[in-house]
Design a protein that fits this description.
The chain is mostly helical. It contains 23 helices and no strands.
Length: 372
């Protein structure tokens, strides 16, 4: 920083700024120690003795230090800036993308970072960066979604344990379904106060007895409901390995039930699920694949209603379809439109749509969904 840049401030500020610059240019151990101490003592946002101009100069010096100094100094700067609500966003983002030892205070504490900054860090930085983001207070749904989509089970567990994080209904439903085979999610899910009652009842089917007792107590389940849940969890056991390695036949109605198909889907056996769905509806497997991955969810809604699946089954299949698409993101608007479509279409209307698909499995342009 030259003398012109330092003009317009009082002598004390000038000396302080020049002192930092001098220390930054000196690579000796004593100077490094003095620099760390000086950065630590920089005035905070609430210090009324510093002017806006003085703070701008201070941040300019910190930008130079971040680029020109070793890890110890950058870590000290990161810790200091993490507590400043008026710290420059560009400087905070730079530190947030540094090595995790430097980024950690910023990622866990700084309120300067915006959702888009956090989502980018989750997408492009390391597991350790994701873990740091997952423990921030008051995470938004979009950041929580990005952490779940990153797919690391330990990060997701930390997110679920973060009681202040907002998690969308669609993502929560996905995690509940995943918890049937990922037991690491079960306990933190049961302890979330924002878990809807119907999702807690789904969890009841595969969690331990101790967690079931928590569900009964916290969601105030009556004896009749508990009896029904226990009966359902006993009646819908996972198909045998032999059944999973062969294609289901029309006569094997047990494997073609919506419960059995959901279990196949939850086990990530997409190929077997497609085969079962094709047999269930009489549609070609390639056409079923198109329906499953269609982003609107309308075709899947029609196919599920034609197969006489209930609305919750369709919602779950839609959720898994969204996560199965590479690079997909949650879209609550599309889901709501698809659910409305499911509700409004009569059995006669979806029968007509499905019969047309059976006759014309490779339609040109938009397929006929009976949407005006």
């Amino acid at each position: 920083m030259d003398s012109a840049a330092l003009s317009g401030i009082d002598n004390a500020s000038h000396l302080s700024a020049q002192h930092l610059v001098t220390l930054a240019r000196d690579a000796s151990p004593p100077a490094r120690s003095a620099l760390v101490e000086a950065v630590t003592d920089l005035p905070g946002s609430g210090d009324e003795t510093t002017t806006q101009r003085e703070r701008e100069i201070m941040f300019d010096i910190l930008r130079r230090l971040v680029h020109d100094t070793e890890m110890a100094v950058r870590r000290t700067i990161s810790t200091r800036l993490a507590q400043m609500p008026d710290a420059p966003r560009d400087l905070v983002r730079l530190l947030a993308n540094d090595k995790i030892e430097i980024a950690y205070p910023i990622l866990t504490t700084s309120r300067v970072l915006e959702d888009e900054d956090l989502v980018d860090i989750v997408k492009y930085r390391t597991f350790e960066h994701q873990l740091a983001v997952s423990i921030r207070s008051n995470l938004s749904e979009s950041v929580s979604d990005s952490l779940v989509e990153a797919g690391n089970k330990n990060v997701i567990k930390c997110l679920l344990q973060n009681s202040t994080a907002k998690i969308s209904r669609t993502t929560m439903e996905y995690l509940v379904e995943q918890s049937e085979r990922e037991d690491i999610f079960r306990e933190p899910l049961v302890h979330r106060r924002d878990l809807d009652k119907d999702l807690a009842e789904r969890l009841f089917g595969w969690v331990s007895d101790s967690l079931r007792q928590i569900i009964i107590k916290d969601w105030k389940l009556d004896e009749k409901t508990v009896t029904q849940l226990l009966a359902t969890s006993s009646a819908t056991q996972w198909p045998s390995q032999e059944a999973r390695t062969r294609l289901p036949s029309k006569s094997d109605q047990g494997l073609l039930s919506q419960q059995a198909m959901l279990r196949v889907l939850k086990n990530a056996d997409i190929a077997l699920f497609m085969s079962m769905f094709a047999r269930k509806t009489g549609l070609q497997e390639n056409f079923i694949k198109r329906i499953f991955y269609d982003s609107s969810g309308l075709a899947l809604a029609a196919a599920c209603k034609f197969a006489k699946f209930d609305k919750d089954t369709f919602r779950t299949m839609y959720t898994y379809a969204r996560h199965a698409r590479q690079g997909s993101t949650h879209n609550g608007v599309k889901l709501q439109k698809a659910l409305k479509y499911f509700d409004e279409k009569t059995p006669e209307q979806v029968d007509k749509i499905a019969r047309n698909w059976q006759i014309h499995p490779n339609p040109t342009g938009m397929w006929d969904l009976g949407v005006n």
